[in-house]
Design a protein that fits this description.
alpha/beta, Rossmann fold, 2 domains, 3-stranded antiparallel β-sheet, 52% helix, globular
Length: 286
């Protein structure tokens, strides 16, 4: 007991609370049970309880939990919000991501099997992982995408390169926010094939693909904005001129900023290179 008193066991206490897991379990259940489908139309709590055979008090608690998360709206009658519709019933649905996470939970709950080397299909895992990571990343960076969309350079931009764009969801988001924008996704050929297929499925327009290796191959040219999210190569100072020269800016604007090894336009993991304002735009991480 004395040893326990000396240890900081907050990590264990927090894991036993399972608050994040409870939220995930509720959302996954609502998605799988088609509750969000049922709430496309306004429903009373009694309607939900009767339709699914749920306990009335438990149903009330469930509906108000979803309302507290912005997924449901209403007072006496309830329906899903526009946010919920986008997240679970649109072409950008995170349903696949939920299913992927449920599979991961199953792996962790059957750790012995995983430790003995049970493998999943590499091709299936690769495709699902790219798309799942894309949706997960975009959820975390929505505020950053919106910040960039408010820049004057972005509003005037006609050509944007998503460097190391992987899934292509950032490029898709940017084309939705600027109707005159054409986006290009640059990544490894194997990744590009997955992105091309996925973006075709969701009906993305004005997006082209450039397969290649950033360290060896040309990345295109004459871009108004070059965007990169968590691209390790973009953090190397010696590669910044290669990126910058592909914008419509002037390399002479860039040289003073490179003295002493400083790296322009690299802001806490979100990198934005633009031809405007002497080639510099700062976008903080949120």
């Amino acid at each position: 007991m004395e040893e326990l008193l000396r240890e900081n066991l907050n990590w264990l206490r927090n894991s036993l609370k399972m608050e994040d897991f409870k939220t995930f379990a509720i959302i996954a259940f609502c998605y799988r049970s088609k509750l969000f489908d049922f709430l496309e139309s306004e429903r009373r709590i009694e309607d939900v309880s009767n339709h699914f055979g749920f306990d009335l008090l438990a149903t009330k608690a469930l509906i108000y939990f979803l309302k507290s998360r912005g997924l449901v709206e209403g007072s006496e009658k309830f329906k899903i919000s526009n946010i919920c519709r986008t997240l679970f019933k649109s072409k950008l649905s995170i349903g696949e991501l939920l299913e992927e996470k449920l599979k991961e939970i199953d792996i962790w709950l059957n750790l012995e099997k995983a430790l003995k080397g049970t493998k999943r299909s590499e091709e299936e895992f690769f495709r699902n992982r790219i798309i799942s990571l894309g949706k997960f990343a975009l959820l975390g960076d929505i505020k950053v995408v919106n910040l960039i969309s408010e820049l004057e350079e972005f509003k005037k931009a006609e050509r944007l390169l998503d460097l190391g764009g992987g899934h292509g969801l950032y490029a898709y988001a940017f084309t939705l926010l600027n109707k005159n924008l054409k986006a290009f996704v640059f990544d490894l050929p194997k990744v590009i094939e997955v992105a091309k297929s996925f973006l075709k499925e969701i009906g993305a327009e004005r997006i082209e693909f450039i397969p290649g290796d950033f360290f060896r191959d040309p990345i295109g040219a004459n871009f108004d904005i070059i965007f990169s999210s968590f691209n390790p190569g973009g953090k190397k100072a010696e590669l910044i001129p290669k990126i910058y020269l592909k914008t419509r800016g002037n390399i002479s604007d860039l040289l003073p900023a490179l003295k002493g090894g400083s790296v322009p336009r690299i802001c806490s993991g979100i990198h934005l290179s633009s031809a405007g304002q002497s080639g510099r735009s700062e976008v903080p991480r949120i």
